[in-house]
Specification:
Blueprint lengths: L1 E5 L3 H11 L5 E6 L12 E4 L4 H11 L4 E4 L6 H14 L3 E4 L12 E4 L2 H7 L6 E4 L18 E6 L11 E5 L6 H10 L4 E5 L8 H9 L3 E4 L9 E3 L2 H12 L1
Parallel strand pairs: 1-2, 1-4, 2-3, 4-5, 5-12, 6-11, 7-8, 7-10, 8-9, 10-11
Helix pairs in contact: 1-7, 2-3, 5-6
Length: about 250
């Protein structure tokens, strides 16, 4: 049985590890290639796009894929819609593996928005020293002249490319991050507002706790809706169970 995992997330890597131990299951993980040195999962790995819906459907047919699992980042919206369309064309069962989103608790000062552009728009009223944790893609939203007086600490795995905020320090780092580390980061850089995407999961959640403790507001970009009609699970083991049920 050949399983294609659209990956790049912690959950996708864990899923590949679990499936690699199953007899009779061949695993191929597909990575987008946006990170220079990704952590490679076990099994076969391919890097790069498929060429849209038709390209992915052709790949599924040519490589005799029996099951497709979309375990991409919650904000990698295009590939999820392409996966749904391609799976339908190629008549391949599809499952989405999505980590749950974060939920505000007592003491949080969250400002939920629908886009990076909206996040940029609310910043001037919230603070002057911004911890920007949305990755290196999309920094153009924070490069406008109206934000020129703000200072940004940008954390990403790889170095960002222009356009970028006018006043910016780059911190190259990869999660998981510790709570003590996030507390110290907010203190050392005198952060008074945090910007994040609702990626969910535990690897980067400590910044939310640190912000809550420090009374720092957090601008949270709401995750986009995925394609309809696709079954969703939130744990890698549940995806393994689905594969094994298909295998029979």
């Amino acid at each position: 049985m050949h399983v294609l995992i659209l990956g790049g997330t912690t959950e996708a890597r864990r899923l590949a590890e679990l499936l690699a131990g199953e007899a009779g299951v061949r695993v191929t993980s597909s990575l987008a290639g946006r990170v220079a040195a990704p952590r490679l999962p076990p099994g076969e790995v391919r890097v790069g796009g498929f060429g849209g819906v038709d390209g992915l459907a052709d790949w599924l047919r040519e490589h005799r894929v029996d099951a497709l699992i979309d375990a991409t980042h919650p904000f990698a919206g295009t590939i999820s819609f392409n996966a749904a369309a391609a799976a339908a064309l190629a008549h391949v069962p599809l499952l989405a593996l999505r980590r749950p989103g974060w939920v505000a608790v007592a003491g949080d000062d969250w400002h939920v928005v629908d886009s990076l552009g909206q996040a940029a728009g609310v910043l001037p009223a919230l603070g002057e020293r911004v911890f920007l944790t949305t990755g290196r893609m999309g920094l153009a939203a924070f490069s406008g002249a109206e934000l020129a007086d703000l200072w940004f600490l940008v954390r990403s795995v790889d170095a960002p490319e222009p356009p970028c905020p006018a006043r910016m320090e780059v911190l190259l780092d990869r999660g998981p991050f510790s709570l003590d580390g996030e507390r110290e980061l907010l203190r050392r850089h005198r952060i008074d507002v945090v910007v994040t995407k609702d990626s969910g999961g535990s690897a980067t959640a400590p910044k939310l706790v640190a912000a809550r403790e420090a009374g720092v507001p957090v601008v949270v970009v709401r995750r986009p809706a995925g394609p309809g009609g696709v079954a969703v699970v939130d744990l890698p083991q549940a995806a393994v169970d689905w594969v094994l049920l298909l295998r029979g």
